[in-house]
Specification:
About 40% of the residues lie in helices and about 20% in strands. The protein has eleven helices and ten strands. The strands form two sheets. Strands 1, 4, 5, 6, 7, 8, 9 and 10 form an eight-stranded mixed sheet that branches. Strands 2-3 form a two-stranded antiparallel sheet. Strand 7 and strand 8 form a beta hairpin. The longest helix has about 40 residues. Bound molecules: adenosine-5'-[phenylalaninyl-phosphate] (FA5). Adenosine-5'-[phenylalaninyl-phosphate] binds next to strand 5, strand 9, strand 10 and helix 10.
Length: about 350
């Protein structure tokens, strides 16, 4: 074997042994680089006689070309191997099952609470909150229901044991004490809603000892019953997702409003199991309301000579029952997983007026 053949064999084995492009580059430099073995060989041609150069020149050039071609071929092979390895490591099995659906659902009461909040937010109302365990004073007295007033009997109250100073707390019987808290802490103009829990000693298919109400309060220099009616109409249109509604006013009595009005909503219940709003000969109780009593304004630090306002309050559970066809209020609180799956809402579908309230 000639020197050239043995050099070629050595370089070829180095090319085959190169495991990656870095190693192959080193082989290339050691053979074809400035000081590489083949380059050094080619330099010897200058010192040869013309006959010898004629014989060796083509041999050296062929050697260089063959090694160069072998390096290129190995490089392509290594690149393919690297690509295949990467594709294998990044492979996605498109036949795998999709991510499972979320298990939990949003309770219909929470859904309706969010829907009502979205509707009133659009009308420019802020959300105000108060505690479930409330001062007797805020739940009753400052709402013009003094101790021993017969109106206290209208609310079947859960009382909390008396404090050391003799004062009593109650589980709030309605969300109206949030009106008191808001008027005591803010200056008019006031425009709030206050959705939340309320408690009464009461239980049947339409009454629950713990239930949910929404309260609305608007205080300004010029407010009237027309504004109140318009506000409730807007609520009904958006909530029941209908173009037209008709409200009927009935005189009523609440100690904290004067005059007091209860509102009924025209509906059609002639088809069993179905209810349509804005038409028909039936009426559905919607909310209690009225113009805030001047005595309440005064007891909450607002000048009744300068300001007036309206307030309203309705049942969230009752609205949820109506809208989503739930016959018994008690089922809301039984935590039956099958019921929750059936009546619950997708957790990521937040109700908005633009995106839809109850998709
Ligand atoms: C009130 O509670 C007044 N605070 C509403 C109000 C606010 C009037 C502001 C004027 C101005 P009422 O007792 O009617 O009113 O209750 C309002 C609604 O709460 C009822 O129409 C009903 O939908 C709901 N509700 C009352 N008790 C229960 C109960 N035990 N279970 C479920 N919902 C109830």
């Amino acid at each position: 074997m000639t020197d050239i053949q043995s050099l070629e064999r050595d370089i070829e084995s180095a090319i085959t042994a190169a495991a990656d492009e870095g190693a192959l580059e080193q082989v290339r430099v050691s053979a074809l680089g400035k000081k590489g073995s083949i380059s050094e060989l080619l330099k010897t041609l200058g010192g040869m006689s013309p006959e010898e150069r004629k014989e060796k020149g083509p041999q050296f050039n062929t050697l260089r070309d063959r090694i160069s071609a072998a390096i290129t071929a190995r490089k392509t092979e290594l690149q393919e191997q690297a690509l295949n390895a990467r594709l294998a490591s990044e492979r996605i099995d498109v036949t795998l099952p999709a991510r499972p659906e979320p298990q939990g659902t949003v309770h219909p009461v929470s859904q309706v609470l969010d829907e009502i909040t979205a509707i009133f937010a659009d009308l420019g109302f802020a959300v105000a909150e108060g505690p479930d365990v409330e001062y007797d004073d805020y739940n009753f007295t400052r709402l013009n229901i003094p101790p021993d007033h017969p109106a206290r009997q209208m609310h079947d109250t859960f009382y909390v044991s008396p404090q050391r100073d003799g004062s009593r707390h109650v589980l709030r019987t309605h969300t109206s004490p949030v009106q008191v808290r808001t008027m005591l802490s803010q200056n008019p103009p006031i425009r709030i809603i206050s959705p939340g829990r309320a408690y009464r000693v009461d239980s049947d298919a339409t009454h629950s000892p713990m239930f949910h109400q929404f309260e609305g309060l608007v205080i300004d220099e010029v407010t009237n019953l027309g504004h109140l009616k318009w506000t409730l109409e807007e609520l009904c249109k958006a909530f029941f997702e209908v173009e037209k509604v008709e409200l009927r006013a009935r005189p009523s009595f609440f100690p904290f409003t004067e005059p007091s009005v209860e509102w009924d909503l025209r509906c059609d219940r002639s088809t069993p199991g179905k209810i349509t709003f804005g038409q028909g000969n039936d009426w559905l109780e919607l909310a209690g309301s009225g113009m805030v009593h001047p005595k309440v304004l005064a007891m909450c630090g607002i000048d009744p000579e300068k300001y007036q306002g309206y307030a309203f309050g309705g049942g969230i559970d009752r609205l949820a029952m109506l809208k989503y066809g739930i016959p018994d209020i008690r089922s809301f609180f039984e935590s039956d997983i099958r019921w929750l799956k059936h009546f619950g809402f997708a957790p990521l579908d937040i109700p908005t007026l633009d995106g839809g309230l109850s998709r």
